[in-house]
Amino acid sequence: MDVPQLDSSSIVSLVESPVPIDQSRKVFPSIQYFSCNGILLITYADKIIMLWNPATRESRRIPSSKTGGHYNFCYFPRIEGYKIFRLGYGVVTDDINDMNIDIFSTKGNTWKSIGTFPPNYYFLGYNVVMTDGVVYMTAKRKENLSNYTILRFCLEKEQFQEELLFPYAIPRRRHVLFSLGEKLCLIRVLEGNHKVNREFWLYMMKTNSWNKILTLPLTLENCVRPLSFMKNGGIMFQKSDSSGFVAYNSTTHKLEQVNVAGIEELYFINIITYVETLSSLDW
User: Fold this and answer.
1) Which of 93, 225, 259, 267 is 20 to 30 Å apart from 99, CA to CA?
2) 14-45 in b/e burial notation, b at 16+ Cβ within 10 A?
3) Which residues does the UniProt record annotate as the domain F-box associated beta-propeller type (predicted)?
4) pLDDT (tens digit per residue) in 84-106
């Protein structure tokens, strides 16, 4: 759905998947999906990797890499094609953190191994976020396990960059990375006086700086996940109970329920946004 256009008059319709979906409890939760330049990347049960344009119904099967892993992808105009990033385990070793990085280019239609995850860090097992052609991953330094850090990998140059610094220390289980619009977003959780506040920070690549854009008093029962900026200046969120959407009204500074026809009584494990395009997958 085109979230900047989403409002209470919107109607959602189902689009048939390019491949049959195994909805068993073992397989369905492991499906990964991402959006870039109007194209979706979907991985099914670690065996099927698919690029798909929902607008044209065109799809392209990507040769499978190694079993499992964390994926993401990005379009690069310079090569007029996409690169797919995979972080996952290679050959089983005694080192649980021995993870490999593989990259697929739609131009060459092949996977290649880049190397292993930096040996001085532990990957935290979640939060592989892509914005501006850079992959961001939460990790912790082996010599300092009390606080987490953010590693970044330039997908175009296919190499790690220096750590992404944050104005405050990032404590354990008190932050989450998301992509909000085309920017990296970090949610910082603050607890005190029987209240839980969530600060939303945006990373600005051009100035290499963080800007706090919003603070919301939210409990575990009503926490939200950011999805996209809206044309009216608000922000669209997915509700934590996966039942739908709320929007932050920048005028009233309140969260408002958004009711969309077609999704009543439906629940969503995850939601991604994309902007419709007629781009072909014939590269």
Assistant:
1) 225
2) eeeebeeeeeeeeeeeebbbbbbebbbbbbbe
3) 12-275
4) 999 987 655 545 557 899 999 99
